[in-house]
Description:
By secondary structure, this protein is of the alpha+beta class. It is about 30% helix and about 30% strand. It folds into three domains: about 5-110, 3-Layer(aba) Sandwich (Rossmann fold); about 115-130 and about 200-325, D-amino Acid Aminotransferase, Chain A, domain 1 (2-Layer Sandwich), CATH 3.30.470; about 135-195, Dna Ligase, domain 1.
Amino acid sequence: MSKIKVVLFMGGDSGEYEVSIASSSQIKNHLDPERFEVYPVLIRGGKWYFTDENGIQIPFDRNYHCLQIGNDNVRFDCAFIAIHGTPGEDGKLQGYLDIAGIPYTTCDVTTSALTFNKYFCNDLAKQYGVKVANTIILRQGETWNPDSLVKEVGLPCFIKPNKAGSSVGVSKVYDIAGIEAAINKAFAEDDEVLVQQFIKGREMACGVFTMNGEVEVFPVTEVISKNDFFDYQAKYTEGLASEITPAPITKEQSTECRQLTEYMYRKFNCKGVVRFDYFLTDNEWWFLEVNTVPGFSSESIIPKQAKAAGFELKDFFGSLIDEALRNKKH
Ligand SMILES: Nc1ncnc2c1ncn2[C@@H]1O[C@H](COP(=O)(O)OP(=O)(O)O)[C@@H](O)[C@H]1O
Ligand SMILES: [Mg+2]
């Protein structure tokens, strides 16, 4: 049987570039070489290329959706998207792959674009009856007044880019005097900024994916940051955060979170593996955000949850491709 040819997209144009590189090496290391032929393609600053064993960069042909390697014209059965942030998590790459007719491992264009926009996603989650923080959106060029923002969301509050990740550009603001600098910092990352009510609670994450057509929800993880919140430094510096899987919560709380996760996965029409992030306040689950291309590095939450749920990473990553092929649009 011939092997399944997989193009593994990595890199991207966001602050999560390094994370994506770590994610993709973990994926490549765990995809079964007996079943898959994997070609990592780096996307960065408008360039897309594969690097061969001699270090030669071979451009990915975006017109014919292939790689010309020597005399071989390599075409792909599936794309594994390991780019966090744009263009892998916001629907852009998904749009290209739909046009190219290549199935992929993530949510579709609509779900990716909608969930990547924290403001729209929050609003929809609220309509689905899920608790979310009170949020104001500021768009580039709009005027705002710190007093009225604070009157609306209270203090402390969170100020963050609407479309970004890894806590890049996120601030926790304690006083009115800190609002302006935090808004400017967030605008450096995106043209839309959220001013959001602070949710006081324990931070939790729950992954979910589909295997053989069945939705499988992972155990819940509690994230405890030594910093004031789960900022970039805490996310990527050894020892600054602990992640406990399964989370030390009651059985009922865990069931509630996992049911909520499956409910939202279905409501948002998610595909592939997705991680929902929450706060647990006095017995209430508040939705924070959803990551449709969650981290896959050895330090990331999803691989740990998959292992805790009893999956071998080889089977887990392989099943994401099998599922993409099963859903292939005809
Ligand atoms: N409204 C909020 N209340 C409490 N903590 C928050 C809030 N918003 C963000 N945070 C903290 O900031 C971190 C990053 O925010 P998040 O919205 O998840 O953005 P990113 O997409 O960059 O991960 C969260 O993991 C959490 O620790
Ligand atoms: Mg987050």
